[in-house]
Write a structure and sequence with these properties.
Structural class: alpha/beta
CATH class of one domain: Alpha Beta
CATH topology of one domain: Collagenase (Catalytic Domain)
Helix content: 25-40%
Radius of gyration: 17 Å
Distance between the termini: 33 Å
Number of strands: 5
Strand order of the largest sheet: 2-1-3-5-4
Order of helices and strands: HHEHEEEEHHH
Bound molecules: zinc ion
Length: about 240
């Protein structure tokens, strides 16, 4: 476990999944052996060193996608996955132009993950917060000391490891946006929401810089083969839907 190196990098890091929503949360059974958890990439260094034995061991642990699904991972039950309701909790202060832009981003991100689900994932709209599975909300300021943050996802998980609700919080005007063009801001928003929706579906961070689920960055707006593989590994019925 060589990834528990704190990073104070202030640029464009993705929001981290809260540990209270991840699988290091209380649902972890007492007495079970500690396992290498993708949640522990939360504090991964920006660049993975490739010279020490420790880091090579860790890389091999992450990179082998043929490994069986880790049953400690949290996921939606199949029935819920097929009928996920998304509630958008618009801030009262957000203007119509900004809402329209976010709506485009939401539509695209939902369509992309739904497409990746090959019929097993459906993301619909809910008009009632309490009937939703995923709530989208915005916040104007980052948490003190996390000014690199652009968003985060907090998963509520049953004792059986099933996700019961996810709240995605998006930062309205993260620091990184000050350095971006208008077009790049929408791209950044899409990258952020794709990433947070990945967490909402149960995915953890990737160490591959081209993945939407890469632990840091904002440029990936297309689900990569690695993202799709991670999704199929978490939900094997998607694999069977693909006929693979
Ligand atoms: Zn993340």
């Amino acid at each position: 476990m060589s990834f528990n190196v704190s990073t104070n990098n202030s640029q464009a890091g993705f929001g981290r999944t809260s540990t209270s929503g991840g699988r290091l949360a209380p649902q972890q059974q007492a007495g079970q052996p500690q396992r290498v958890s993708q949640s522990q990439t939360i504090n991964a260094p920006e660049r993975v060193p490739t010279t020490t034995a420790d880091s090579l061991e860790a890389l091999q642990a992450w990179h082998d996608r043929s490994q069986p699904v880790d049953d400690n991972r949290v996921r939606w039950p199949e029935s819920a996955l097929a009928n996920l309701a998304l509630f958008t909790d618009w801030p009262a202060t957000m203007d119509d132009r900004a809402k329209a832009q976010w709506q485009r981003v939401i539509n695209r991100a939902c369509a992309d993950w739904q497409g990746a689900g090959l019929g097993r994932i459906n993301l619909g709209v809910s008009s009632l917060a309490r009937q939703s599975d995923i709530t989208l909300q915005w916040q104007t300021q980052t948490v003190e000391g996390r000014d690199y943050e652009v968003g985060h996802a907090k998963r509520r998980v049953s004792t059986g490891g099933q996700i019961t609700h996810v709240t995605i919080t998006l930062i309205e005007t993260p620091l990184i946006d000050a350095t971006l063009s208008t077009a790049d801001i929408e791209r950044r928003q899409l990258a952020t929401l794709l990433h947070e929706l990945g967490h909402a579906l149960g995915l953890e961070h990737s160490q591959h810089s081209h993945d939407v689920m890469f632990h840091q960055g904002w440029r990936n707006v297309v689900l990569s083969p690695g993202d799709l593989a991670a999704l199929k590994q978490l939900y094997p019925t998607i694999q069977s839907a693909a006929g693979a």
